[in-house]
């Protein structure tokens, strides 16, 4: 019988949620399982408040009866559980495959702890095989894309059917094919220096733990230096 590795990792992460916590809800098919499990625990009496990182996660949480609040209305979150498109052993991540990177970063950075949940295919030695999502403003996007290209990648504007994809914030995503990224912190700084860039999918020094589900039914936990 095949193991649902995403569910395995996500449900392990939910064990870290305690009564009274303010919890950030990630986005994607792995975060989905964490939200589902949280819904189960809320039905059993767990008392939490949650902030969602996308409309999809908000809809799921609402349906499950998880109490939601707008992030702007609270001063911090205790724990965020979210997926990743790639992660390395130093807990550097590429995120944004689902287009929610900006809200995901705001929420993760406002959390005391971020637990990344992933299946083993996401764990890599060097980030960059997965094209790096970069959220850019629609105004003069051609200029921004040209600047991204100068950093040594092949940027591809994400599409949704015959239209350009729009994030929950109304922006575009350029999926940047870099290949192996020699230094994620250096690249992050270069991206932040481009004026049309809103944010990018490199999460560095943000995750405090990764829980990786494996096909043999086991779980690998990577603890980061930023963990408390
Ligand atoms: O960053 C994300 C969305 O913006 C997701 O967490 C990432 O794409 C992983 O998704 P999945 O768990 O479906 O593989």
TrEMBL record:
E.C. no: 5.3.1.6
Pathway membership: Carbohydrate degradation; pentose phosphate pathway; D-ribose 5-phosphate from D-ribulose 5-phosphate (non-oxidative stage): step 1/1
Protein name (record): Ribose-5-phosphate isomerase A
GO molecular function, one term: ribose-5-phosphate isomerase activity
Alphabetical list of Gene3D superfamilies matching this protein: 3.30.70.260, 3.40.50.1360
Catalytic activity: aldehydo-D-ribose 5-phosphate = D-ribulose 5-phosphate
EC class name: isomerase
Family label: Belongs to the ribose 5-phosphate isomerase family.
NCBIfam families in the record: PRK00702.1, rpiA
Any GO BP: pentose-phosphate shunt, non-oxidative branch
Active site location: 104
Record note on quaternary structure: Homodimer.
Binding site for substrate: 27-30, 82-85, 95-98, 122
InterPro entries: NagB/RpiA_transferase-like, Ribose-5P_isomerase, Ribose5P_isomerase_typA_subgr, Ribose5P_isomerase_type_A
Annotated PANTHER family: RIBOSE-5-PHOSPHATE ISOMERASE 3, CHLOROPLASTIC-RELATED
Residues annotated as transmembrane: none
Signal peptide annotation: none
Superkingdom as given in the UniProt entry: Bacteria
Keywords linked to the UniProt accession: Isomerase
Function field: Catalyzes the reversible conversion of ribose-5-phosphate to ribulose 5-phosphate.
